[in-house]
Amino acid sequence: MAIATINPTTGVTEQTFEAHTDAEVEDRIAQAQSAYETLRQTSFAQRAGWMRRAADLLEEEVERLGRLITLEMGRPLAGARAEVLKSAKGLRFYADHAEEFLAPEPLADPSVVGASAAGTRYAPIGIVLAVMPWNYPLWQVLRFAGPALMAGNAGLLKHASNVPQSAIYLDTLFERAGFPAGAFRTLLIPASRVEGVLRDGRVKAATLTGSEPAGRSLAAIAGSEVKHVVLELGGSDPFIVMPSADLERAATVAVTARNQNNGQSCIAAKRFIVHADVYDEFTRLFAEQVAALTVGDPFDEGTDVGPIATQSGRDELEEQVADAVAKGAHLLTGGTVPERDGWFYEPTVLEGVTPEMRLYLEEAFGPVAAVYRAASREDALRLANGTTFGLSSAVWTRDEEEREWFIDRLDAGAVFVNGMTASYPELPFGGVKDSGVGRELAAAGIREFCNLKTVWEG
């Protein structure tokens, strides 16, 4: 894939960029290593001041950045602005809490290990490589960069090739805020050159948000180099609706949960599993509201759903739906490509999706929802856990015992009760099964790329 900004609303190539040469990549790794040697010696207070300034810059530049996100990947402008502000909030969260999360932890009674003092400390590890996707071009990166730099590490970013201007902005953000030059550097390189960077001895770990095949490939390389990874590889999140649920609220939230960011979110609800007793009513409410969404220019403040970010992504979505319909699934709304420029796809709801259809097991990365009828809570759980993914999940019920039953049994990194999945700096984020390993955000996220060092004193 060319490193280029291609406007998904029009299909027009706005700007192309040359990949960094081997010499330029080497220089940027050297800059990051030098910055790490400086940064690791700074105090939490010093880093926090710089991090808050980075947050200030995001807020000061929110309009320009929002429009850049919309240009590069098609997110409606209001959501793009919100992403910038959420990123600023995430940076401030780690500025406020990094020292607390990484504080030394003394053993209460060191005499049990024959010491006068003993415990653990967290130390930075060095350069961490981030391989990031286009769907949240700022938030995905900054929720890694904030904790990594606050821990005293340096970062290298290999961003998705279709959001190069976002990547270039991030290349200078932290230096502008006061961090040592090189503390965070963007590498404009194709995916084929990631292996060489990861095998460099100065790079100590990696994090990737993206497809399952990409995660497996990076993990295999890191494993051969004995390097730590954090992987977030997408999901096919269930949204379970039980008879005691507030159906009107559940249906309204379901529309947002599926179609946020043009349906291009790893944690978007994708499979709507509804108890037979309320299936007809929920499905009617849900399909009616999906059909009422406004599809159009993402720069228009009245647009609900913009284009798919890439032509290949739109084409794959079209193929997945066509496959399901050809094999017997029923369209409740949508299912067509609008006749207009750009890579648009109508918000779609299907029922009757069965195991021989691609949509049953594959992640649909766009505004396409599949509704399933469940005979019982056991049947709902079987359907919910019946994929290789396990990122997040949602369950709607006002029955306290039923709520606990689902929380205990859902195979997912998160369970949201009577709400839709979202990521918060205050809560760990990550999945199980093929959705990945490790955690981002909260205390767990900053500790992923630290050396947990045991200290014993006689």
TrEMBL record:
Residues 3-455 form the Aldehyde dehydrogenase domain. One of its GO terms (molecular function) is succinate-semialdehyde dehydrogenase (NAD+) activity. InterPro entries: Ald_DH/histidinol_DH (IPR016161), Ald_DH_C (IPR016163), Ald_DH_N (IPR016162), Aldehyde_DH_dom (IPR015590), ALDH_GabD1-like (IPR044148), GABD/Sad-like (IPR047110). Keywords: NADP, Oxidoreductase. It holds the Pfam family Aldedh. Gene3D superfamilies: Aldehyde Dehydrogenase, Chain A, domain 1, Aldehyde Dehydrogenase, Chain A, domain 2. Belongs to the aldehyde dehydrogenase family. PANTHER family: SUCCINATE SEMIALDEHYDE DEHYDROGENASE [NAD(P)+] SAD. This is NADP-dependent succinic semialdehyde dehydrogenase.
